[in-house]
Design brief:
- The protein is of the alpha+beta class and 340 residues long.
- It has two domains: 82 residues, no CATH class; 233 residues, 2-Layer Sandwich (BirA Bifunctional Protein, domain 2), CATH 3.30.930.10.
- It contains 13 helices and nine strands.
- It has a seven-stranded mixed β-sheet, sandwiched between helices.
- Helix 2 runs antiparallel to helix 4 and helix 3 runs antiparallel to helix 4.
- The structure holds phenylalanine.
- The site of phenylalanine has 11 residues, from strand 8 and strand 9.
Length: 340
Amino acid sequence: MQERIDQLLQEVETLNASSGEEVEQLRLRYLSKKGLISALFEEFRTIPNEEKRLVGQLLNKLKTRATQKLDELKISFEEGGEEEDADLDLTRPTGQVRLGARHPLSIVRNQITDIFARLGYSVAEGPEIENDWYNFSALNFPVEHPAKDMQDTYFIQRDPDVLLRTHTSSVQVRMMERVQPPIRKIFPGRVFRNEAISARAHCIFHQVEGLYVDKDVSFADLKQSLYFFAREMFGEETQIRLRPSFFPFTEPSGEMDISCNICGGKGCNICKYTGWVEILGCGMVDPQVLKNCNIDPEIYTGFAFGMGIERITMLKYQIRDLRLFFENDVRFLKQFTGAI
Ligand code: PHE
């Protein structure tokens, strides 16, 4: 009898089934009242007393193992984790999810594009990886211009024609090549210059470029548009002044200052006690640039301007260190939410 129990024990250990029904068949075969194990218990009564202890232990072991094994098999055919899912309520509210904050540079970029949208400007974008034509040559930069120097511009070694754009003026050219005037567009984007990172400079920063080309566009239009922008951005009382400057792609060119929004023009360390802070470069589109883009300068004139979003944001929110924009410390970033 001992041998038969051992044999059944081995059999039980290797039991397998491919469906719930098969498991039930096995249960009937081994554990039902008419099953093999019950039969052994019947037989057990008839064996000599001295064998009962050992055989009884074996028999109990067989019954326990068979029950365990068949229970295991049964569970594996029940629908996965049904019991656990029973009290899962998908309509319950979750834990609190913290909302992030819009980056201050994005907030200000949106403000700038909104203000110009009110003057009829729509947004366009261009690639960050440019070639010499769009970033420099079409914009009248002479071959030996210092901006083309490796010190200022990121080129790639394999092809000196390929570079990371150093300003968004490249998008002016792409736009003018594609469409004839009237053009009234604003180009926000990321630009790259080979600069050491400090509180006032970074090798990556953001600009917004504006371009307006049509018949009879004059310097007065430029000045009035930028005056409107300055007041919308920095407040009604803001004054502007234009100083002569130079850019290869505009003629005449200017640099625009606003009255210092910190001290109101009285003089402080932000405006270096001049009462004025510079915010952008601008000018009338050079006729040669129009020609380069197949626009007839005898018919059309235009103006362009470009500003650094970091600079505008620093002035607007009185941020002293440019590096804060790139650290992504939420304690800094969350201070600007909703500040539209
Ligand atoms: N591209 C110039 C810069 O990066 C800014 C500018 C744009 C000046 C348009 C004039 C007209 O400094």
